[in-house]
Structure formats: C-alpha cells, structure tokens
Amino acid sequence: MLAIKDLCVRLEDEKKEILKGVNLTIKPGEVHAVMGPNGSGKSTMSYVLSGKSGYEVTAGSVALKGTNILEMEPEQRAALGLFLAFQYPIEIPGVGNMTFLRTALNSQRKFRNESELNAAEFLKLVRDQAKLLNIDTEMLKRPVNVGFSGGEKKRNEILQMAMLEPSMCVLDETDSGLDVDAMKIVAKGVNGLRNRNRSFLVITHYQRLLNHIVPDVVHIMADGKIIRSGTAELALEVETNGYANFKEIA
Amino acid sequence: MQELDGQLRDGVDIETVKTVKSVGEQYKYGFVTDIEMEFTPKGISEDIVRLISKKNDEPSWMTEWRLAAYRRWVKLEEPSWAMIDHPPINYQELYYYAKPDSMNTKPKSLDEVDPKLLETYQKLGIPLQEQMQLAEVEPDDTLEQNTMSKKVAVDAVFDSVSLGTTFRKSLAEAGVIFCSITEAIITYPDLVKKYLGSVVPTSDNYFATLNSAVFSAGSFVYIPKGVKCPMELSTYFRINAENTGQFERTLIIADEGSSVSYLEGCTAPMRDENQLHAAVVELVILEDAEIKYSTVQNWYPGDEDGKGGIYNFVTKRADCRGDRSKVMWTQVETGSAITWKYPSCILRGDNSQGEFYSIAITNNMQQADTGTKMIHLGKATKSRIVSKGISAGKAQNTYRGLVSIHPKSRDSRNFTQCDSLLIGDTCGAHTVPYIEVKNNSSRVEHEATTSKVDEDQLFYCRQRGVGEEEAVALVVNGFCKEVLQALPMEFAMEAQKLVAISLEGSVG
Ligand SMILES: Nc1ncnc2c1ncn2[C@@H]1O[C@H](COP(=O)(O)OP(=O)(O)OP(=O)(O)O)[C@@H](O)[C@H]1O
Ligand SMILES: [Mg+2]
C-alpha cells in the first residue's frame, strides 16, 4: 500500500533537516502505529506524504499503491486514496461542513471518473455516518471546524474519512484532546473502516488508543528516523519507560 | 483614512500566484450577436440629444430636461478622486444610441421579437418565457432550502432598447407597473415627472449628468400603496454593439406600505476597446415601504493585460422618504475593467433603515473603487454596511464609504464591516472610510480587516481532494457568505458560481 524509502526532508525556508532517512512499508489491510517524542518529525512525515508545500524532499521515495506520489498535487494524492486526519484541523469560516464534504467527495469522484452523488444520496450518506460517530446534525450545518471543541474537530476528521473512503488513512494524534467516551467512539469508527484493502498509519502518544485500535506494527520515531519497529508490545514499553532507552540505542 | 496595501508577509504564496491566467479567456458571456443595428451618429451634441429623444418618441418636456442636463454636462469635468486609472475617454468617439433594426416596428409582445435577440438571452441563461423558473437548489447547510419554484419577471435590455418585459398581465392585476423607462415616459408621464431626477438630480455628478442627457432604456417600476409585489422583478442589461455606451436609467417607486425585490444582471461581449456604461438608478421609498435591490454585475472585465472591458460609472441612490422605510442594496461586482459605484441611502424618514452588502472581486488588471454613502437625516435611523473586497492578479480594489449622521438625526446607528482578501502579492486593497457624526446620541462602529488567502485552508481543502481553483473559490465564497446570504435565494447560487468563475486563473 505505502512504501517510504530513505525519505529525507528539509524545510524549504530554513534548510533545516527534519526527516533523516525514514523507512516504512505498510501492506494492504495493516494498521501501523507511530510513536515518538515531540518534535521528532511525525507530523512532518504526514504533511510530506500528503503534499503540503514548504518542504523539500532531498532524497528517498514514497510510493502509494506502487505509484510515486512525490510529484503529485495534494488533490491527486487524495483521489488516489490518501487521507490525513490533521493533528490541528483547519477552520474555514463561512463554508458549511456539509458543503465542504460534498465538494470534496464529488471532486474525488470526478477525478476518478465516477458519477457525482446527487443531493439526496449525499444527504443520506452523511447523516448515517454522522450518527455512527455521535455527531449532531447541527454540527454538519456549521462552518468547517469553526468554534468546534477540540474533540469535535477530531471526530469531524473521522467523519470526513468515513465519507471519503480512502485506502491509506494517516491519523495524526486523533486521540489527543478526546475524552474517554469520544475516544471509544472514534476507535469504533476506525475499526469499522478496517478491511483487507485499507491501511492505517496511526500517530499517537498514548498506548491507550492502541488498546482500542490494535496495531499490527508499532514504530518509534526519534530525530527524523524510525529507530525501532515491533509488535503492540513496544507501545507498552514506551508507556512504562518513556523514550529514554530507545534514544540510547539510536 | 486608512490605507492597507497588499504586502506579502512571507514567500508561501508565490507558488499560488505563479500562473495568473486570463480571466478574459474564461469569460463565459463574451459572444457577439450578429445583427443589423441602427445608430445615432458618433459623438455627442445638442442635436444628438434631440435625436435620442425623438427616437424614443418623447414629449417635449423630456427633450428639454435632457438638453438642460447636456448644457450642464459640457461645463463639467470628469472626477478624478477615485483610485482608478484609465486613459482619457473620448466622448466624441462613442455611439450614444444603438438599436437593433428589427426593433424599429415595436413588437407587441416578446413573441414578436427577432429570434436572434431572444436567442442571445437564452444563451445567457435568462428566461424570457413566462413559466415558473425552476431553481434546482442543492442542499446547503447555511442556505438551507429545497427545490422551489419562483416566478421572476424580466425586462430584457439590448444596447439602447428594451425588448420587452414578461408577466405584464399578472403584474398589472396586482397594480404593479413594470416597463421600460422609455415606455413610462409616454404612458405614465405624471409619475415620471414627479420622481425622475428627484433622487439623483441632473446636476449630481459628471456621469449622472451625462446619463440624464442621453439615457435610453432601463426599467420603471411602481408598486402601489400596500402592495407586496407578487414576484421578483429583474432587468438584464446586455451591451452588444461596438464603440457604444449604455446609459440606462432605472426608477423604482415603492409607495406607502409596499415592498419589492428587484435584481439586475449585466453582461457584454469580449471586445478590445473599452466600452462605457454610465447608468443612474433612483429608488424612492415612502412610508413603511421596502425595496431590496440586488445587482450581479458581470460586464466583460478585459483580458489579462487590461485590454478591453467595460468602464462602469454608475450612480445609484435610494431615498428613504417615509418614516420606517427600508432599503437594502446587495451587489456582487465581478466584471468590468473599472467599477466606480457607490449605491447610497438617504435616510430621511424617521426610523428608516439602509443596508449595503457588497462583494467586489477584481482579478488581473481590474480596478474597483466602490462602496456606499449612508446619509442619516431622520431620527433613529439605522444603517449597516458589509463589504467584502477580493483582489487577485494585479488588481486594485478600494472600498470608499461615507457615513454621515446629521445633527437632527438623533439616536441613529451605523455598523460597518469591511473585509479585504488578497490573493497573491501583486494586488492591492484599500479602505477609505469617511465618518461624520454631528450629534452625541448616535453611534458608529467601524471594523476593517485585510487578510491573505490562507494557505493552510487551501491545503486542507486540497488534501480532501478539492482542486486548487475550486479550493480558492470555496474559501472565498466562505469569506463572502454574509453577503451571498443577503441575495434573493434564486440568485445566491448563481452568484456563488460567478465568484468561482471570476477567480479562475488567479492561482496555479
Ligand atoms: N514550518 C516549520 N518551521 C520551522 N520548524 C518546523 C516547521 N515544521 C516543522 N518544524 C520543526 O520540525 C520538527 C518536527 O516537527 P513535527 O511537527 O513533525 O513533530 P512531531 O513529531 O509531529 O511532534 P508532536 O509530537 O509534538 O506533534 C520540530 O522541531 C518542529 O519545530
Ligand atoms: Mg505532530
């Protein structure tokens, strides 16, 4: 599904190197978790995958479903099935959540030469999905993320993911800011989307989330590199000992 | 006075701006209708003014009115205070009257109008059939609505003549008069004499004075006492002929306790020469009456190098004469090479209200100097101004607004919100508010912001699969939401699409 090879990235402006040779391969249907100290480059990796400007790839490659995506526009990557649940979802004043979702969904469908959903089909889909995630329909009418609480924003990201049905989902700290119940709802939402053809890259600081979304592989990222990979056990180790031990190894 | 110029804070946006393409290429209404036309000779003189009056079969009082305006105009000078720049207009090189030959024998109804002309309106998407206009509306969260049917009466103006108006019968049953101004001068001389020039006097300003001398076409509306106009009224202006100015004059009178919603739309072919449009709109609103006047202005803006396009010099004013009268101007200005336009409200009646909602989009070399004047004369009058200016390319966009509260206008209030959005670093946004408050019981609030289109918002949209141009349109439409909501629903969707079209090519 996703193959990141020796990825090196620096900031366009400051020429500061942030990713220093990341290697990560995710097979279809797998769930991988990435943990790591603040500032280690996790969000940067998610931005580079999705094509945000301001970063310069100095070496390495990223293939999604066998296609090199580094030269593609963000919307092309999205249409190919890449989705990023943002660590800090963006507010768009004046643009209704529903309008936003419909525009996004239909853009992707158009891109893939599929027919656009009509109003009724769309409405039904969004209402059903919102219900699963315990999202009030009032929230669908409000402008995208404007005035949403931290937890509401995160749930809204998962709603978008459920609507867009991507094949490669990157979740950047979706659990941060969620109360216990909301985390269970989000985990349930994610688990409901798990299937043989869909993969997840879950960035988190907390082992807790991984009790609900059980990963196939856990990676530890530090200083722009994956320094350890292992089973779910690895997350428990982080929980008890922190990152100190890993750093020494690195 | 406050000056906010489009300065780029960081380099992020350069990528966005790299390929500023021509809006002209994307202008959807740039076709020319190929028909035989009758013109008055080029240029302007007393003889031309007389000739125009004669072509319109006008009574002599009207001819004299025009001549008086003309004699005043020759002594005036073109104003230069606006933040616009253009080569001098040679007023002797213009045609002041152009009429399709086929309109020489006046058609009795629209059915008799030359099919070529009717086809023009069909191409523009304007319904001239008297049928329910089915507006298929998609579910939108903020403009929530379902499929609805709505009747809209249309006056179709082609260069200097009105082809005809629709729904005459059902409007007449309600006592509403909706016809061309030319027809009104002949059929309703008393109403015209009483109100024409009573809001915008012939001496008002250079362009209004010129209009008074040479105007042709435009709409006349009279809503009798207590009548709520049973349908939307609208006029579509089309400039077709080359080197021809359009000088329409619209007069709307809402008698006591009446109400009406009126919309005007405008398009023109793509031509390399600039064309002049100098219109006057007068609104008279009596006690407890209300007029909602909406404009979707989409004149040809010129190409990316600033070649061609309409010079749009328009005087629009509403006189809230009666107590508790109300006017609401809503404008979506996307076209024209130059827009010079300040729809104003004279709040004369006590407790009268004026509102101005504006979206002005300028791309490439377009220049807009637009805003409003709120003149508070009556007691406890209220005004509200919401202006959204969007600039892209090398465009200049100025909001110029006057709020004047006179000594006797006690307990009056104004609220002004003025937001500018910049796309790229080669355009400019300017805010020029003039505020005068001459008593101590009134209150004025003014808020202004200038921001750049947010790269994070664009990236967020694009990550969800929305293409870059559509993302810009989405974000800009969000920025304009308050104003779009002020439009009649049937036109809000149209305006949203227009916002997207006028920004095409502003990013790449
Ligand atoms: N645009 C930028 N300008 C300056 N520094 C940046 C920029 N983007 C990232 N960085 C720096 O790069 C490093 C990695 O940041 P990143 O956000 O990827 O970390 P992270 O692993 O996601 O951290 P956290 O766990 O706190 O979310 C940090 O030191 C950060 O300050
Ligand atoms: Mg992060």
Can you characterise this structure?
The complex is a heterodimer of chains A (250) and B (508). Chain A has helices spanning 42-50, 74-79, 97-111, 119-132, 137-141, 150-164, 180-193, 207-212, 233-241, 244-249; strands at residues 2-11, 17-26, 31-35, 55-64, 67-68, 82-85, 92-96, 143-144, 168-172, 199-203, 217-222, 225-230. Chain A is an alpha/beta fold and 250 residues long. Chain A has one domain (2-249): Rossmann fold (3-Layer(aba) Sandwich). In chain A, the strands form 3 sheets. In chain A, strands 6-9-10-3-11-12 form a 6-stranded mixed β-sheet, sandwiched between helices. In chain A, strands 2-1-4-5 form a 4-stranded antiparallel β-sheet, with helices on one face. In chain A, strands 7-8 form a two-stranded antiparallel ribbon. The mean pLDDT of chain A is 92. In chain B, a hairpin with a 2-residue loop joins strand 5 (152-158) and strand 6. Among the domains of chain B are: 1-30, no CATH class; 32-198 and 210-254 and 264-275, no CATH class. Chain B contains 12 helices and 25 strands. In chain B, helix 3 (60-73) runs antiparallel to helix 8 (206-214) and helix 9 packs across helix 10. Helix content of chain B is 21%, strand content 34%. Chain A binds chain B through residues 13, 50-54, 73-75, 77-79, 83-84, 86, 89-100, 102-105, 107-108, 111, 119, 122-123, 140-143, 160, 164, and chain B through 11-12, 15, 138-142, 144, 454-457, 459-468, 470-471, 474-475, 477-482. Residues 11, 18, 36, 38-44, 54, 87 of chain A line the site of adenosine-5'-triphosphate.
Topology:
The complex is a heterodimer of chains A (250) and B (508).
Chain A (H helix, E strand, L loop, with lengths): L1 E10 L5 E10 L4 E5 L6 H9 L4 E10 L2 E2 L5 H6 L2 E4 L6 E5 H15 L7 H14 L4 H5 L1 E2 L5 H15 L3 E5 L7 H14 L5 E5 L3 H6 L4 E6 L2 E6 L2 H9 L2 H6 L1
Parallel strand pairs in A: 3-10, 3-11, 6-9, 9-10
Antiparallel strand pairs in A: 1-2, 1-4, 4-5, 7-8, 11-12
Helix pairs in contact in A: 6-7
Chain B lengths: L13 H4 L19 E3 L6 H10 L4 H14 L24 E3 L14 H9 L9 E3 L12 E3 L1 E7 L2 E5 L2 H6 L3 E4 H7 L1 H7 L10 H9 L4 E5 L8 E7 L10 E6 L4 E9 L6 E4 L2 E6 L4 E8 L11 E12 L5 E8 L4 E4 L2 E4 L5 E10 L4 E10 L5 E10 L4 E10 L7 E10 L5 E10 L5 E10 L2 H9 L4 H12 L1 H4 L4 H14 L6
Parallel strand pairs in B: 5-9, 8-10, 9-11, 10-13, 11-14, 12-15, 13-15, 14-16, 15-17, 15-18, 16-19, 17-20, 18-20, 19-21, 20-22, 21-23, 22-24, 23-25
Antiparallel strand pairs in B: 1-2, 3-4, 5-6, 7-8
Helix pairs in contact in B: 2-3, 3-8, 6-7, 9-10, 10-12
The complex binds adenosine-5'-triphosphate and magnesium ion (MG).
Adenosine-5'-triphosphate binds next to helix 1 of chain A.
